[in-house]
């Protein structure tokens, strides 16, 4: 470990219950990969040892959240749990109208179907997968306007989640009538879990208000974003997470939320807005697709757990440990020179697949190749964020995205430092044999959100004259070294 590495994160909790983990054998992992079509979304949880696929809905709930579940008032309409949940969101955000949903993508569906029309453009710092899919589903165009530094994994910019405000201004000057809203994702998941500054949010808000364009936040990791503002932005040190959050929300007209992130629950989300005229349209769609407006497709006990979790996520001790785990994992990789997005993000560490596997071209899907090899090496499940997740949805079909990343999303309050050490050792083993790793190709996939359902095979560029592939030979060498 580097001598200036951060200290071991100290858990601000103790463990009351445990879940047994099973480490599959190498043979079991190979069979699992074959059955899954080399897509880690198709693995069963029994086939995974350390699961870093996502931090969404994978948190460990607290004793207070479990206690809240027992207070569930399962009335179809007007449950007291909704009243408590609504009041909590209103107090945290200042948005007067709160509509629960079963998760964030349902909130996106409500908002986008109400506001978007074909041919319109929705700017964002960077759209993540389901946000982009909902924009496209309405026949609109998602436009990423992150600052240039966001596209260089090696740049140590404190707020790589910022939007390029001059580009936003130019868009609205030239095409205001075709922009129904401006979105901002906190933190920027597509670009490495990077935060946006309060100064940047103020500037975006001012532009939107001058042009009379609604400004909405994707606030699923807002508490982590507020932590970075408190830590890195001049004048914000010493402020509470809730104070910073209220100022951020005060700059916006509303928000969508997957509470499966900074709500610390396994299911739940909401739309919040200041626009009273929009609410009836949102509720009509909600009733059609989700449920009555006081439960939104959730068991009412889930609303109770969400109300508690939204407040727990603002605790400074919790956030210091949460973000400290990501930084600690990064420090374990530094001595080996393993490339990742700098600085480490809020909810996970993102490997730079282009630099990890420089011998693979973009068409050989280096990100997906890397997630497969990480699983093959140690049964650690991760997620590709690159050519598979976004490649087919670029304006020019087949054009690779500028970032090719592998996300190691750390579930909240789930894994200990020893688990992180195991992950680091797995990554080091893959790094040391990286030259033997071959590329992949897509065998079958849907048109959109293909990363969830695609199946893969070895890239034809890596096939030798004997019919075996580099990746196959790499497996043989790796197996010999076990």
Describe this entry's structure for a reader.
The chain is an alpha/beta fold. The chain has two domains: about 25-55 and about 320-480, Alpha-Beta Complex (Aspartate Aminotransferase, domain 1); about 65-310, Aspartate Aminotransferase, domain 2, CATH 3.40.640. It is built from 17 helices and 14 strands. It has helices spanning about 25-35, 65-70, 80-95, 105-115, 130-135, 165-175, 200-210, 220-230, 240-250, 280-290, 300-310, 315-335, 355, 365-380, 385-390, 415-430, 470-480; strands spanning about 50, 95-100, 120-125, 140-145, 180-185, 215-220, 255-260, 270-275, 350, 380, 385, 405-410, 440-445, 455-460. The strands form five sheets. The chain has a five-stranded mixed beta sheet, sandwiched between helices. Helix 4 (about 105-115) runs parallel beside helix 5 (about 130-135), helix 4 (about 105-115) crosses helix 10 (about 280-290) and helix 8 packs across helix 9 (about 240-250). The longest helix is centred in the last third of the chain and has 19 residues, at about 315-335. The model is unreliable at about 395-400 and about 465-480 (pLDDT under 50).
């Amino acid at each position: 470990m580097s001598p200036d590495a951060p200290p071991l994160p100290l858990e601000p909790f103790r463990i009351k219950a445990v879940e047994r983990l099973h480490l599959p054998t190498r043979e079991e992992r190979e069979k699992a990969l074959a059955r899954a079509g080399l897509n880690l979304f198709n693995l069963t949880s029994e086939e995974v040892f350390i699961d870093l696929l996502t931090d969404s809905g994978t948190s460990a709930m607290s004793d207070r959240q479990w206690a809240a579940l027992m207070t569930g008032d399962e009335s179809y309409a007007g449950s007291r749990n909704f009243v408590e949940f609504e009041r909590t969101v209103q107090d945290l955000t200042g948005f007067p109208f709160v509509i629960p949903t079963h998760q964030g993508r349902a909130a996106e569906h409500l908002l986008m179907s109400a506001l978007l029309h074909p041919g319109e453009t929705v700017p964002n710092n960077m759209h993540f997968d389901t946000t982009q899919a909902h924009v496209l589903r309405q026949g609109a165009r998602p436009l990423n306007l992150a600052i240039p530094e966001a596209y260089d994994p090696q740049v140590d910019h404190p707020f790589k989640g910022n939007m390029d405000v001059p580009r936003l201004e130019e868009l609205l000057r030239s095409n205001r009538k075709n922009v129904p809203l401006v979105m901002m994702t906190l933190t920027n998941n597509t670009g490495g879990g990077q935060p946006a500054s309060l100064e940047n949010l103020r500037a975006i808000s001012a532009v939107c208000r001058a042009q009379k364009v609604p400004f909405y936040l994707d606030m699923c990791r807002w508490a982590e974003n507020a932590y970075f503002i408190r830590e890195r932005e001049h004048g914000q040190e010493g402020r509470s997470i809730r104070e910073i959050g209220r100022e951020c929300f005060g700059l916006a007209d509303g928000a969508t939320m997957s509470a499966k992130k900074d709500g610390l629950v396994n299911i739940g989300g909401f739309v919040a807005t200041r626009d009273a005229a929009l609410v009836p349209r949102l509720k009509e769609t909600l009733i059609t697709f989700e449920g009555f407006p006081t439960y939104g497709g959730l068991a009412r006990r889930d609303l109770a757990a969400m109300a508690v979790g939204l407040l727990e996520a603002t605790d400074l001790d919790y956030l210091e440990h949460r973000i400290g785990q990501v930084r600690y994992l990064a420090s374990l990789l530094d001595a080996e020179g393993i490339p990742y997005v700098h600085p480490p993000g809020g909810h996970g560490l993102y490997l730079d697949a282009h630099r990890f596997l420089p011998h693979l071209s973009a068409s050989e899907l280096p990100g997906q190749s890397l997630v497969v090899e990480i699983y093959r090496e140690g049964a650690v499940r991760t997620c590709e964020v690159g050519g598979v997740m976004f490649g087919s949805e670029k304006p020019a079909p087949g054009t690779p995205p500028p970032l090719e990343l592998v996300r190691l999303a750390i579930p909240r309050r789930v894994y200990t430092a020893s688990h992180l050490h195991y992950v680091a050792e797995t990554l080091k083993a893959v790094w040391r044999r990286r030259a033997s790793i071959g590329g992949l190709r897509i065998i079958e996939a849907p048109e959109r959100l293909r990363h969830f359902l695609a199946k893969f095979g070895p890239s034809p560029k890596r096939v030798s004259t004997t019919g075996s592939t580099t990746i196959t030979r790499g497996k043989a060498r790796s197996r010999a070294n076990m």
